[in-house]
Amino acid sequence: MREALASGTAAYEAKQYSKAASGLGRYLMVNRRDIPVLLKYADSQLRCRPQSKGWAQQAVNALEAILRTDPGHRELPSVSPTSIGPWAHLSKRSASPERG
Predict the structure, then answer these.
(1) Which candidate, 47, 63, 66, places its Cα nearest to that of 55?
(2) 12, 34, 81, 84: which has the fewest C-beta neighbours closer than 10 Å?
(3) What pLDDT digit, counting tens, does each position of 31-57 carry?
(4) Is residue 58 a contact partner of residue 45, using CB atoms and an 8 Å limit?
(5) One-character DSSP codes across 14-66
(6) Could you tell me the residue ranges of all domains in the chain?
(7) CA-to-CA distance for 53 and 76, rounded, in angstroms?
(8) Strand runs (DSSP E) across the chain, as ranges?
(9) Higher pLDDT, 81 or 40
(10) What are phi and psi of 54, to 5 degrees?
């Protein structure tokens, strides 16, 4: 799994988002609560081109996993979910009202 993390991280830093999503996804199959990697994975999925509903859904799933692991987490990927065009509505399912 270290190899998957290393290759996914290297691809992410090289802006090869499809390769990054693949490598980071393999790593996350075993390490599902690694929030920094989940963020990179979600970001990679949102940046993959051409866009697809599947990639958008994987990004939403990763963000939901972050919130299940750390309900108070506030950091988001650097790409806005609204930039994914017709699949932006998928991100609304994980939105929750602020707790005070």
Answers:
(1) 47
(2) 34
(3) 999 999 999 999 999 888 877 778 888
(4) yes
(5) TT-HHHHHHHHHHHHTT-TT-HHHHHHHHHHHHH-SS--HHHHHHHHHHHHHH
(6) 2-89
(7) 19
(8) none
(9) 40
(10) -60, -45
Pair 48, 79: CB distance under 8 Å: no
Instruction: Based on DSSP, count helices (H) and strands (E) in the chain, helices before strands.
Output: 4, 0
Whole-number Å distance between alpha carbons of 95 and 17: 25
State the amino acid at position 70 in one-letter form. Answer: D
CA dihedral 25, 30, 34, 39 (to 10 degrees): 10
76 in Cβ contact with 44 (< 8 Å): no
Evaluate if residue 99 carries a pLDDT over 90.
Answer: no
Tokens found for residue 53 = 């509903």
3 state SS of 93? helix
Residue 91 confidence class, pLDDT cut points 50, 70, 90:
very low
Q: How many CB atoms lie within 10 A of CB 60?
A: 22
